[in-house]
Structure formats: C-alpha cells, structure tokens
Amino acid sequence: MSRIGKRPIPIPKGVQVKIEDNTITVKGPKGELKREIHPDIGAKIQDDKIIVFVKRQTKKSPALHGLFNALIWNMVEGVTKGFQKSLEIVGVGYRAELKGSNKLVLHLGYSHPIEYELPKGISAQVDKNKITVSGIDKELVGQVAAKIRSFRPPEPYKGKGIRYEGEQIIRKAGKGGGAK
C-alpha cells in the first residue's frame, strides 16, 4: 500500500470537487481542472477530504495509488494557488518579449527569432532576462517551461542559454592550451 496514496486530500473553502464514474472535476477560484482516474483506482469525498483508494489489487496498483493521490492534490492546489516556473536567459544579446497575451518571441543567437505560441491556460511574464510561466495545471506549466528551455539549453563552456532559476550548470574547462 502506498504511503502517499493513504494521505487524505483536504478540500479548501471555495473549491468544489465532483467525482463521476472515473472522472474527477475540481473547480476553484482560479479555474477548473478535469482528469480521468485509472480503472483500478477510486476516489470518494468524506468529511471535506478526498480519499483515494485501490479498487482492484494488481501489481501496479500501489504505484497508481500514490500517483493519482499526488495528481489530485496538485489539481486542488492548482485551482487555489496556481503554479509557476521561472527561467533565466543568460547570454549577450539573448532576450525575450511577449507579443500580445499568448505569443513569446525569443532572440537566442539564431539567424531568426523563435516565436512560441503559449497553450491555453498558460500565461507568461517577461522581465529583462527572466521568464515566468504560470498556470493552474502543474503538468502543463512544467511542460511549457521545458519546451522554452529546449530552444537553447545551457551549454557547459560559457553557461549561455535558457536555464531554470537556481539551476546549477556544471562548467567544463576549455582547451588545455598547448600542453604536450
């Protein structure tokens, strides 16, 4: 049995949770999220808490029990507080700008600017060399941040590129310089 799966998920004030068949819907002040639950896993509402339980015991059910508990926990937290990831742009001439409300234009040393259309439900803020991606779906926020980082990942020699805020880049030494 999963230890993470056993913890009850508190439902804060202002959040509505509806469980129908294998679908859970969480509605809160920031928006609404919906997710399919695996057939081996079930969920019920009891005393302003969501209880996730195993319907059918299989080899994968302990892992799925913890997974769906964490996913539902993130849904509840997303509709109340939201999630955000910050990225730093390092490099001379590298910059980002926001066109409209959902198009991110990145100048990263290529011969052309990269235009990235933000998915629905995701917003971004650009402040000098910092991009902040935010939204209510934790999975989507992380996916968008990883996609933006993939346009110019940090390189190990000078550290130029897009990195997560606080990410440590292990630097390599350059050429040895004539030692024979």
Can you walk me through this structure?
This protein folds into two domains: 3-80, Outer Surface Protein A, domain 3 (Alpha-Beta Complex); 83-164, Outer Surface Protein A, domain 3 (Alpha-Beta Complex). It has helices at residues 3-6, 61-80, 138-150, and strands spanning 9-10, 16-20, 23-27, 32-36, 41-45, 49-54, 83-90, 95-99, 103-107, 114-117, 122-127, 130-135, 161-164. It has a four-stranded antiparallel beta sheet, covered by helices on one side. Strands 1-6-5 form a three-stranded antiparallel beta sheet. A three-stranded antiparallel beta sheet has the order 2-3-4, with helices on one face. The protein has 180 residues and is an alpha+beta fold.
> Strand portion, in percent?
35-45%
CATH topology of the largest domain: Outer Surface Protein A, domain 3
Named CATH architecture of the largest domain: Alpha-Beta Complex
Query: What is the residue-mean pLDDT, rounded to a whole number?
Result: 93
**Order of neighbouring strands in the sheet with most strands:** 11-12-7-13
Largest sheet: 4 strands, antiparallel
Provide the CATH top-level class of the largest domain.
Alpha Beta
Sketch the topology as an H/E string, one letter per element: HEEEEEEHEEEEEEHE
Count up the domains. 2
Question: So, the CATH homologous superfamily of the largest domain?
Answer: Ribosomal protein L6
Question: Percent helix among the residues?
Answer: 10-25%
Number of helices: 3
> Unreliable runs, pLDDT <50, ≥5 residues?
none
Alpha-beta content class: alpha+beta
- Overall spatial form: elongated
Total E-strand runs: 13
CA distance, first residue to last residue: 61 Å
The radius of gyration computed from the alpha-carbon positions, rounded to a whole number of angstroms, is 21 Å
